[in-house]
Amino acid sequence: MNWNTVKLIWLREVRDQLRDRRTLFMIAVLPVLLYPLLGMSFLQVAQFLQEHPTKVLLVGVQPIPNFPPLIEEKPATAEEKDQPANVPRVAQPVAKGKGGQDQNSHRERKYRFNGQWAGDGLKRDLLDLDVQSPDDLHLSDDPAKSAGEIRRRIHDADYDVVVYFPADFSSRLEQFRQELVHRAESSVKRAAPALDVPSPELYYNSAKEKSQIAFARVSQVIGKWQTAVGAQTLRDSNVPETAARPFNVTSTDVADSTQRQAAVWSKILPFVLLIWALTGAFYPAIDLCAGEKERGTLETLLCSPAERSEIVTGKLLAVMLFSMATSLLNMASLGVTGLLVMRQAVGLGAAGIPAGLPPLGTLVWLILALVPVSALFSALCLALAVFARSSKEGQYYLMPLVLITMPLLVLPMAPGVELTLGNSLIPLSGLILLLRMLLEGNLREALPFVPPVVLVTLVCCRVAMRWAADQFNKENVLFRESERWDMRLWLKHLWRDRGETPTLGAAVFCGVLILIVQFFIGLLLASNQKLDFAGAVGLALVSQLVPIAAPVALLTWFLTRSPRKTLLLRRPAPAAILAALAMAVAVHPVASALQMLLEELYPAGRTAEALGEILKLFQQAPAWWIPLLVIAILPAFCEEFAFRGFILSGLRHSGSKWRAIVISSLFFGISHQVLQQSLVAFAVGMLIGYIAVQSGSIWPGLVFHATYNSLGWLQFVWNKEIDRILQEQPALAWSLLFVGAVIVLWLANWFGKLDYQPTKEEQLQESIEKEAAGALHM
Question: What pTM value is reported for the model?
């Protein structure tokens, strides 16, 4: 590779992008305007964030003797004192006397919560009380009818919260308190009185936010009042008030202000860094590839003496430059705007919002992480941009890329997600978790996770760059032309022009269709009812035949001319069958060790436990061969015809057998739903796909799959005996692991020496790579 040529191409692309007003707006203008506008909008909107009063109805509240009341009379305002006598303010009696006569009928009053429980500040005035008796509301003695009337009042928005005190609440509570006092004064030991005080009820509507706010306020007041009642009862019983709470817990924050600021910024800056690195790479990549197709300049560049690898490298470096610049400018604008806005906001520092810029040391870690991240996103965007026929089509690819990337960026923000060895192996998520730990100043704890995070990030970068380079080496991708799409003509084309094996798009469609149908079938079959053996058998049959076997059979009939070639139904050599059988036996201890390691990294969840319960039901089978048939042989047939038959045959049109094996194994792994099983299935699927390609037949892989599943079932049945033997002889486990790994490697080498039949696309790709290698040596 001539780096002077790469430099010339890089400078050319940078100049073209700097002349583009859209690119300059996305990189320089948008960050400068976006965050100040957001900050100004925040300050403007904050002026309208006012709390509004909520209406509360207290029914049947009565004062408790010798105890501060829950409510008190609200003094009249100056306007109310000047009202004429014949204009009533609020007629709300607190209690009824004998014969139902209102004891306070001579006065019309307003009430509010006692300042001891609600405080004397703004919160107290936000609770607009309406105090009434059950007779005022015409509540019957039937509790169900009374509750229905109260619910109607809330649904009709008459009140946000209703607090209902039973008729004998006050008397029963006082009786309970007096009994405790007599028990404390008596020298004779008596059993504590039973708590038989009726409970007040709070009615609210959780579907309305205003009712939720009122419920929170009233609950806090009632809780303080309840605590005070208990404390007063203890004092009346000559028991120290501190008996209920013999000690207090104090907390001390050992972090200084700088560390607190770094902790808050660590949750914001890594996400901003990655999301803007993606955005900053996408639009320049679209213009440098799809845009050049529209302008007709791509052909001129390809006809130059520059090699394809040099063109790809120059474009990639240009896209990386704009990706990094966009991300850095956005972080700088966010930091400065955040500093100025938070200084203007009142009281936000107490809520944990940073009042200053992040420490300068955090910029070092962010810039170091930005280089591989921008390379990863630039390569992905470049590959998609090359595949696009036009700039308009290229814009459509942003949403799928964001949908795939966003879960990896949001996962580290979930509560309880920490940086562990398992999480460090997740692309992008592990990087964000590592950055958070570094920004928080936990360098010593973060160092052990730096190698796995760096390794995973570099591998992803390498794969993405290789994909982008492969796209530039395909003439059918570089010179794809835009075309109008017609549903009827497209269906005719699929049927009339179908080949002996499925196309690349058909293979991907089949894999996605299987996963989608499997997802909905799993939701429909999910049930809290306990299954029996027959139900478990039916569940296993439906989960294999409906989402896997049925789509493959229909697509094979509709989209291919030769089911024999599509499903690799060629007769294999007997030695290949025996080698696959031996490899399945040898790989099983290796896969079991990998399964145990993954369970340590990623603890099993509810789905794995539910699958374990279903497997236990198969132990009730009336015959030993039924579980082997249902959970070993049937899945082997269905999954092999799907993933190593239809999907693998179609993916081989991509021009690389290894790409076909990896992608088909990825679909195979995801279809197992449980994370630990999916990762093991991906690794095992790589072996089976390799066997299918090298032998040119589905049958060796099917024998491997059926044997592997059968050994897994036997291991589940004899799990206790196997664990006991391995505990008594730990060297046996390591011996089996070592011998199995050696046999697998030897048999894989044996399969590699078989003459496999490459597709036309694979032959073309091999010839291109040979010519490129020859040009390099010259």
Answer: 0.71
